[in-house]
Task: inverse folding
């Protein structure tokens, strides 16, 4: 009976922690959904360990306790794969964003030079130089 | 300002530079002296005043907010070229090993040959490491390029469009990955023998040590496998005529 108490305590604690973090809005969209599902699974398996034995019998595994371990490792691998795919996507976006930023900065600088050639020198002294008008379409 | 006047022209030389203060100004001046192109130096977050020196020498300068690597910086040039409607992009290194005087030759060949990309190669600089890597990659990709790391290249509009794309943004060097992407798009590559100098300052980012070479080879092998299946469509027309001074 104590073993069931221990497993229930661990399950409730883990599920509670995940639920708390999801509720605190630390994870967005699909991540939250994924972790909520994990929390639910942990809660069910922790509070009702016989479910594991039943699953083992149904799937023909002679040593049922290995089942959650294998499924768990599989889930972790999938999760890590997803993480790396996400990271690659973000790396691509980050690089392109940085490139665009660099190009736009250069364009902004050259527009400013055209608009007000002396602005760079009296930036501190002349308050009006802080607001630099864009050239009108007929100019330049 | 030279910026607006120069944008009328249609050829852009892109010079990626990371801490190349000793050589960058000279390279910019010599590239401008060819009289055929605008010059854009992409400063890859240098800390030694490279950007200022390049600007003073007459180049337009774009500074990356943080280091994007050799290819990341070059791609800024590609995207800039596309945005500003340049129809040809030349690339060369800022460290002095590429001679800007060779650029007109590449341009002429690009126009004459009908190839989309001209790669300036220098057979004599091939070290043992480079040769091993070269034959290995030729075997892997059947891409018959002698000097696949050469950064002295001319790209036409189609090539620039391909290289400015999102697809090209996860590449790290201007080498096999770039060449494979281009051949995947059905573009024609051609090599042109050119003259190059040994590096005056700094060392190759790729071929610095055997450990780095091994890492690089592994990285590129993975890249080759990711691109497997496109190699049948590769068309490469090797330059057969020997250069004037007998280098081959």
Result:
């Amino acid at each position: 009976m104590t073993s069931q108490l221990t497993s229930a305590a661990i399950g409730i604690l883990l599920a509670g922690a995940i639920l708390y973090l999801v509720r605190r809005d630390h994870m967005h969209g699909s991540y939250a959904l994924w972790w909520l599902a994990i929390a639910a699974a942990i809660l069910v398996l922790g509070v009702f360990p016989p479910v594991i034995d039943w699953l083992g019998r149904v799937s023909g595994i002679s040593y049922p306790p290995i089942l959650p371990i294998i499924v768990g490792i599989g889930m972790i691998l999938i999760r890590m794969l997803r993480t790396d795919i996400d990271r690659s996507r973000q790396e691509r976006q980050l690089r392109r964003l940085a490139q665009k930023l660099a190009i736009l900065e250069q364009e902004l600088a050259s527009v400013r030079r055209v608009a007000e050639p002396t602005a760079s020198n009296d930036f501190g002294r002349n308050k009006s130089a802080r607001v630099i008008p864009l050239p009108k379409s007929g100019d330049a | 300002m030279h910026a607006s006047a120069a944008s009328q022209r249609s050829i852009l030389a892109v010079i990626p530079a990371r801490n190349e203060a000793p050589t960058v100004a000279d390279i910019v001046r010599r590239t401008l002296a060819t009289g055929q192109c605008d010059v854009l130096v992409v400063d890859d977050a240098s800390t030694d005043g490279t950007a200022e020196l390049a600007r003073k020498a007459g180049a337009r300068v774009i500074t990356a907010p943080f280091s994007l690597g050799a290819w990341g910086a070059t791609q800024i040039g590609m995207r800039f070229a596309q945005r500003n409607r340049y129809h040809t992009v030349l690339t060369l290194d800022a460290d002095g090993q590429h001679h800007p005087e060779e650029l007109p030759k590449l341009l002429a060949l690009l126009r004459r040959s009908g190839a989309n990309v001209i790669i300036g190669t220098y057979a004599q600089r091939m070290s043992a490491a480079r040769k091993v890597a070269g034959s290995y990659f030729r075997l892997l990709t059947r891409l018959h390029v002698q000097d696949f790391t050469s950064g002295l290249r001319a790209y036409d509009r189609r090539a620039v469009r391909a290289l400015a794309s999102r697809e090209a943004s996860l590449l790290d060097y201007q080498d096999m990955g770039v060449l494979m992407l281009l051949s995947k798009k059905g573009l024609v590559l051609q090599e042109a023998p050119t003259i190059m100098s040994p590096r005056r300052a700094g060392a190759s980012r790729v071929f610095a040590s055997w450990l780095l070479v091994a890492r690089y080879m592994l990285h590129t092998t993975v890249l080759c496998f990711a691109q497997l299946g496109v190699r049948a469509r590769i068309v490469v027309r090797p330059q057969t005529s020997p250069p004037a001074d007998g280098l081959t």
